Amino acid sequence: MFATMPLVYLLVIGGVAAGVILIAGLRMTDLADRIADRTGLGEAVVGGVLLGAATSFSGTIVSLTAALDGRASLAFSNGVGGIAAQTAFLAIADILYRRANLEHAAAELANMFQCGLLLLLLSVPLAAYATPDFSVWGVHPASVILVAVYGFGVVATARLRKEPMWEPVETGETRADTPGEGDDPGKPARGLILWFLLLMAVMGVAGWVISRIGAEITDRMDVSASLVGALMTAVITSLPELVTTIAAVRRGALQLAVGGIIGGNTFDTLFLTISDIGYRDGSLYHAIGKGDLFWLTVGFLMTAILLLGLLYRERQGPGGIGRESLTILLVYIAAIAIQASMG
Known about the structure:
Elements: H1 7-39, H2 43-55, H3 57-68, H4 72-96, H5 102-105, H6 109-130, H7 141-162, H8 190-221, H9 225-237, H10 239-251, H11 254-268, H12 270-278, H13 290-312, H14 323-342
Helix pairs in contact: 1-2, 1-8, 1-10, 2-11, 3-4, 3-8, 3-12, 4-9, 4-10, 4-11, 4-12, 4-13, 4-14, 6-7, 6-11, 6-13, 7-12, 8-9, 10-11, 13-14
């Protein structure tokens, strides 16, 4: 269907799909905040697990579709490129939150744990790339390990919420996780969850459209799949994270904002498992190039900086932005420049 369309039509359809993702993502932020209140799970847990996974759903469809088409580089770079883009979005949210450094105000053990979990998850595909090519039924063991580690992380994060072994020091700028006005923690969350799942389905369809358009642009314009995956499809399908993060900051749900980004990033590593299953020509991790590995290391570096910022908890950086957020933005801009030079 898309193969015969003029390029301008593809761009218009892609823009509409991006708009659908934006609107759905904005609505999902409100639903996630209310679900956190009604279930008692808290903003950090719901943001890190439910909202993070849901807003990444369109990106999952992009990577899976690309893998089924045999486009290993596009599938891989879409996943790891989204991690870098979403971390940069958190730095943008820090600029918009003027009261204090966002990483200081949103101090929460679950968010720091998720950051450490993400670093662990990112090390798995790196190890797979460096080891001999091996797969069982076309699936590399690293893909199974990713799912196991992620599952452990979800359970451990929920446990930390119930039984924290330490708590961050509260200051005048710390924003506590409290139920929103008009939300009854005892009310059922079933209806909210159903709406949430419906919006996920809509975002999945939009993600499929974007994946097809990204593949067409790669072929027609003769550009690298790493460039398209990391800087086009990954950024577009990451727009919900930008919208939900800014919306959460405006609502004062700071832990939901930070948790949504970090949780979305941890879920994005499962793109690699899904892509490895969909890629039928062997191990996905041995079908990628240096450009794809480059974005994996960029995501690793940006996450490490974010974790240090969450631990250091600078109250107010120069110009109203935390030093870790400024560093994250500079790293991302430099990575874009390097990728552009590589073609």
